[in-house]
Design goal:
The longest helix is centred in the last third of the chain and has 22 residues, at 69-90. The radius of gyration is 14 Å and the shape is globular. It is mostly helical. The protein is 70% helix and 0% strand. The protein has one domain.
Length: 91
Amino acid sequence: MFVYTQRDAITTQTRSQLRALSEVAHNVVRGIIPLTKAEIYQLRVYKHVLIKLGDKRYVHKRKLMHGRQDIILTLFKAALSYLKPLMTEST
């Protein structure tokens, strides 16, 4: 039986998943997706990583994300909290 861990999420990330993560980081850096104070506190040590991950020209994103699984969860939580009201508004 295989147990899926956060480490596996990084190593088995597809190109489209990495592209989506990059887009979320790009929007966070530009200020389109607002962050709570707790999320800012968690991500402040990874400021340089977020800038590189959000840069459209940076090509070594998979290497950059190696060993940094906690960024993924925080970024996607922020993106979902931003998108949830937009999705419920349209229905």
